[in-house]
Amino acid sequence: MKKFLFCIVSFTALSFFLSCGKQEEENEQQLISISGKFTKTLVAGAMTYNKSSHEKESDYVWDASDEIPVELNVDEIIENSDNCSTSGSVLTIYSPGTYRISGSLTDGRIIVNSPDDGVVRLIFAGVNINCQTGSPVYIADADKVVIILEESSQNYLSDTENYVYDVPESEEPNATIFSKSDLTISGSGSLNIDANFNDAVSCKDGLIVKDAVFDISSVDDGLRGKDYLIIDNPDLTITATGDALKSDNDEDAKRGYVFIKGGKLNLTSGCDAIQAVTDALVSAGEIQITAGGGSGHTVSGTKSSKGIKSGVMTIVDGGTISINSADDALHSNDYLCVNGGTFSISSADDGIHSDSVAGITGGTIVILKSYEGIESAQITISGGDINLTASDDGINVAGGNDGSGFGGNPPGQTSSTASDEYFFYMHGGYVVVKAAGDGVDVNGSVYMDEGYLIVHGPTENMNGPLDYDATFTITGGTLIAAGSSGMAQAPDESSTQYSIMLKFNSVHQGGTIVDIQTKDGDEVICFEPLKNYQSFVFSSPQLVKGLDLVAYCNGSSTGVNTDGVYSGGTYSGGSQFSSFKIRSITQIVQ
Fold it and tell me: HSE on the CB side for 506, CA within 13 Å?
């Protein structure tokens, strides 16, 4: 199996060096060097490690004069070629060639058993096949099979709940379209599949679904390519009791991936919507996912109902993606990277989760509902626009349902439970956190040198807007955090950028303003927390040693409110909380 190795090379307050590699073979390792900043991994880069597909341009080119016509006529088949034969309502194809098939069968099937090299090309020109005992399309042997859905044609395949296996000892075939060979389904027509026994399409090699319009209903998985599943610009609707899209070769590090190049996808699954034993890769597309009944449901037992899930790498470069899931929305057992795209996420569990490393370098991500918004052992945010809501921790660096929210140390103090394996890096981007638990919970260290981080909440004193166990080093960027005071923390003395923590004697209502100005009346920050708060943390390059400041509470502003931050306008009507001078890296005012 592929896996990542993460090791600390060196660390200072200003830099951290991390190396990670993807093991392709037992004794071969490719390392990606990261010096202080997360190096994004693109889909194209990940694909250089994976087995290339079987697709060739010639797959879609043929001479019409070479087509072999086959007519399906209810309970009989009409053909006239030495390359195939019929037995009642069963067509068996023995040789490579291009077969143009039309008509319907009430109980019949097409079998491909072509051991010779060459493409078997099946043109579906208005096909309707139902099989009462097995797979309507069974590819037992072939070099490669390409199913072409003819322009404007409507094609239908269906089976029943009961199968009589052709190969009983291996229980095969077991899908509406079952292939032991590389398979491509493409064209500019449409294909409807009603799978009542098991999977709709199951391929034991590589499966490519390209262009065309697909409407698939399955009692188990929708599309399954064992070696790989490539989705290339179809209009694809799947309703599956199991997984919607799946690749599950766990014996070869270069296989077992799902690659979505683009298209319009509407996926509804009882289990995972997209599940890859190695890599789940998305370049583009309009993707609508509902997994496990959506975020209003919970997952029971060992069932997995995630939106997009990988065993090794989940990488998204772009697309418009909406996920409503009972389990994690975006998930990887190892490495996850979001480089772009527009996301709308609702999850009963984590919005974004990776067991080892999660990196966000771009994109617009809105997490409307989650248990924990973003969770991993190591998180790096270097770009993107992120707005998340969590019923527990907003950003959690450690693990799932842990007790990290019950910790918290005063600035400058290190917990004996802090881990040198857990890190949160913020090197850029714009992040808004609305959390009922800890806003940012790190069972290790935080490093921030760029970007804009706003934290609203929590309100309970057993949690804090910022909760870290080791150090919080800030050297740049803007940090704003308002919430409860019982566990409140601020960046510590390892920082080079100054921070302010205001600790109030009583709770202030959400929707009331905290305003900090210079003694000359120049605005420094005017902020309106969404939730009740008793602490306020602010860090910005504006803050310098010796600066005289005045903090106000309540009042109003004529400026424009963006995520609680007022810009422009004039603040007035508030009461003075404190006047103070910045004397230390972390200035606590109470």
Answer: 4
